[in-house]
Amino acid sequence: MNQTPNANRLHIALFGRRNSGKSSLVNALTGQDTVIVSPTPGTTTDPVTKAMEIHPLGPCLLIDTPGFDDEGELGEIRVERTLKIIGKTDIALLLCETGDAQEQEWLQRLKERGIPVILLLNKADARPNTTELAEQIKASCGQPPIIVSAKDGTGIEAIHRAILEKLPADFGEQTITGSLVAEGDVVVLVMPQDLQAPKGRLILPQVQTIRELLDKKCLVMSCTTDKLKDTLCALTNPPKLIITDSQVFHTVYEQKPAESRLTSFSVLFAGYKGDIHYYVESAFAIDRLTEQSRVLIAEACT
Known about the structure:
Layout (H helix, E strand, L loop, with lengths): L9 E6 L6 H9 L17 E7 L3 E7 L7 H15 L4 E5 L5 H12 L4 E5 L8 H12 L4 E2 L8 H11 L19 E5 L13 H12 L3 E5 L4 H6 L7 E4 L4 H7 L5 E4 H8 L3 H8 L19
């Protein structure tokens, strides 16, 4: 499960002030010394991620962030990086100390993005007034915090339960091929093995797509571009769907049967990762381009 792609993992991000114990809590949640821990405020200067399987949550990506109260010119840059993590967060763990205006502001910021938030009051082992602080946070933030201690493990199981309760009902139900195919459909995958392909292996999107199609009980045939014609001739009926590598899209389009639908791995994964709607919307800008327009072309594949 540690090989699960990050895009398919539950992204759990920790937010809070410097020295609020975020890094220690990441280590407690993972059961490993994942993040460097120090009593010096500002030790975490960049977001730190750890991908692993956490029972009973499954494959997760834990994200430790710099404190949102960081100061100075570098501090502002770190806070900006913390803000960017919000866009990648499925569930937020917000470490509160008093429930003051700044903590309320970040709680509101997360809720406005539709992100489920779990409030935590950390360092229970070192606070003589934990109960009073918890009531104060509840009064100011509108929900009670889970009292935890990264040092002695108090509240870790309660965090797991809270995450399961906050888990979106449809999390993990998104599929690569969606409703394009059903059981018994014939699907042809056109996969050119060029210099960019890893020797002796298929690239991960191809592997994931094949596995999903097999799980859906589809009939899967794979071929390289030069063998597409032979593959189609070997079939009694045209395939329901053809999925191709983008670089040979035009070549495959010219050979495909009229009855067969055609898409690419890139398009499918743009939909799988939630980007396709933005790409479709952006494509309409092409009609508005003039001779004075400036176009930025960004490679989206890492």
